[in-house]
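Could you please review the protein record set out just below?
***
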Amino acid sequence: MGMIRCEDVCKSFGEKKALDHVSLDIPEGKIFGLLGPNGAGKTTLIRIINRITIPNSGNVFFNGRPITQEDVEKIGYLPEERGLYRKMKVGEQAMYLAQLKGMTAKEATRELKLWFERFSIENWWNKRVEELSKGMAQKVQFITTVVHKPSLLILDEPFSGFDPVNAQLIREEILRLKDEGATIVLSTHNMESVEELCDNIALINRSHVVISGGVDEIRHKYGNNNVELIYQGNRSLTSLKGVFSVLSDNDDAGRHTAVISLEDGHTGNEVLSEAISSGFSVCGFKELVPRMNDIFIKLVTEEV
């Protein structure tokens, strides 16, 4: 049973159906990717989990029981549309938000100072928010979301506004928070981050869940049983009837890169055995599985 479980959640706004019998499990201690095109219903679901919006029907459970407002206080939520009070000083703003989450002034000061140092923004404590760049403001907002050490983090497009260096910093912090025991829901369009960070995903499209499960499991499910073999030889590997077919073979001065399709029930080991017994020197071998970006596009366009 997951930390968060949604059962048959439905939500409409007038004639528009935002969520149509959405059910999913968010496992404890994992990073869960909530994916989908714009307008698919992701943000509506996040707002229902945070009790900002009430569903028309269905239920949300937190650790096996109906979620309460007290549970929501244990959640760190970074919405996609976010902002800070521009005229306040950065440190005062961070302290105010940390204390809203139940931290004492002493706790908030200690933890915020550590986070500001970690993000190299300690010199901005007494600057006004309006002096911050977009990326710097995003750092402050991320810090105020996680500073009270919530057991569940919901991050909606957390990499928005960051350059590649700071986006990587945020990725590393997300992984560190997971290692410390947090459960993290990551809503993003960045498929590279999904592959790098997420253990499980659910793809929502046109108001319902299209697919859910482990990232590796889903990538293999949508694979086409192809492998890549890199080998040295003065001739090419040939297909072995009933076992595998060589789809392409690029020969660069005797160094071959071949894409090979395995017949059902056969494995890459048979390709390697055939290559070695044929006298080739194997330099590299890997299974070719589709990227999450390709799967995302395939599933979303198939539904249109």
